[in-house]
Design a protein that fits this description.
The protein has 660 residues and is an alpha/beta fold. Helix content is 25%, strand content 14%.
Amino acid sequence: MPLKCPGPARLFGPVFAPLRVWAAGACLAGMALAQAQTLNTAPAPAQRQLTVGLTRMPTSAEATHSVQGLIVRLKEAAPHITTVPGLKPLGDRMRQRDAERWRSVLRGAALTATSGAREPVLRPSGRDYEVLDFGRSLSVAEAERVADRLRQRPEVEWVSLNALEQRLQVTSDPLSAEQWWLKAAGGTDGNVLPDRLRGVPGFFSAWTLAGAGAAASGGISAVVAVLDTGITPHPDLVGRVLPGYDFVSDPLTANDGDGRDSDPTDAGDWVSATDRKQARFANCNEQRSSWHGTVIAGLVAANADNGIGVAGIDRQARILPVRVAGKCGAAVADIVDGMRWAAGLPVAGVALNPNPARIINISFGGSAACGREYQAAVDELRGIGVVVVAAAGNDHGNVSRPANCNGVIGVAALNRDGFKAHYSSFGPALSSTGLATVGGDDARSGAWAELLSDGGLVTVWNTGATGPGSGEYAKLFGTSFAAPLVSGTLSLMLGVNPALTVEQLIEGVRKSARPHVMSTQIGVCSEDNPGRCICTEATCGAGVLDAVQALHFAGNPGSYVPPARQAQVLDAAEIRQAVALGQDLPPNHTATASAAGLSGADGGANSAAGSTGATQGVEGGGGGLAGWQASAWLLLATLLLWRQQRGVQPGLRRISASHS
């Protein structure tokens, strides 16, 4: 099942038209309907839409001829303005001295007319430096060669390329302003909470590098396989989806009338009260359809700059939908076959995939150890150049599989300000090949929720409660949605350098990652402190995903050196207020279940299904608390929901959705 958050929030869900509350079971960690905000799908009035379109990326020829001379400063240079109020005028001696030094510099760098080249014109700029104007554009390589000669002169302090800067990447997608995770990382404790973005990857800034790099490499677009619930039509995914396959072998689970076939359409994974009367679904939670695969596809590849909706991470990526999940979860055998087929390997009874993927995104998981079937598939894929990205899980406990397999990029979820989201699983399984990025941090669980939560990740959605409806947009939370941010970054890296190996892709996102944030207030993540907490390399992987630096690595992996960076220290007023409330979540050992036990997996099943699901080879499951605890949480959740519904903003519509 899609990875879901264990906590009080899973015991209820707001449902629209008309408003009512669905109680979904008697366990805290059991799956239930969570909430997301669907944003109005009607395009904003023309005058309200963003008018600054995405900057057109230069062609390869343009990209190499974009330097308009050099900017040079001599050591102890005289200011251009020789009379400053309150100061004595500077004499001609200093100006004459600089003129003589410039003649020496140009002569020594072979830039005078006597050298046979066109002598550059010196044009004053800034306080005391000169622009060397060659009367034409220079290629980057040519400009660097000349700059190197100038830097060797003892009179020169520094040389910089007078490059043509592009305006920062923005899109005409009306909801891009809601996509805070696309913005550049930054902010301090002095900023208001929405402006503290110390955990974001920074895709707006990365797009400039990605476009120029893709142009230089021929613009080859990566194929990203989304192993999930399938795909539904959406206006923001037009032209981005390749022919996929449905690997759900059980017709009842598939919910489309048959088993495996060549149609990857998501028929819906809802579970009704009637379904639960069948033995096959007796231990599944009642829920509406999640449209989980469509959500993941939108995060990676929603059309950007098309004037509607949202922007995906990689405007060139192509999505390969591989349906492996239906009602109640995904069978391990179906997932493994889907992995192999997506990579272009043969699967019995299925035609070869004509569009093999280099990146496979899996946002499903189970609580067990990796297992030989998963590890064998991961190793086989790695041998042919395919990297697997998997969500760490939402049990705020051990990392789920296949994120805990060797060689898989497991992804933990962060709050926008860089600390671990309350639900995200963590642990040593992420230390060797994992890392962390934002997944949204909702306000429904944990003692610190109202003070420190963020708005979630906005992406494509479907309105249907059971069968597919229309395409809309929603705000969602979960490690399910952190994983595709890494997959999208890998896709951008392959666009810059299609020759990158699996080892280089993994090294690239990890070596380029920013250090995990630190705090004088928030404790580090541990079994005793599993909620909102401070990640370390041992618990959440190498660091915080940095899309810009990952692309710098992709451009030249052999010589990449990460910039020297200090860990950001969090000590805002809201953090101090939150810490004063006590620990965000109780220690994991105090929240473990009774006789049924916690399966430790994230997915759509309750505690009973967590144990039977593992026996049946179904990825899904979660834990539960005793019935009296669940009832108390349900009452509290209902009251909170009533209060939240009274504050719904105009133009927004709340829907129930999997917290994945």
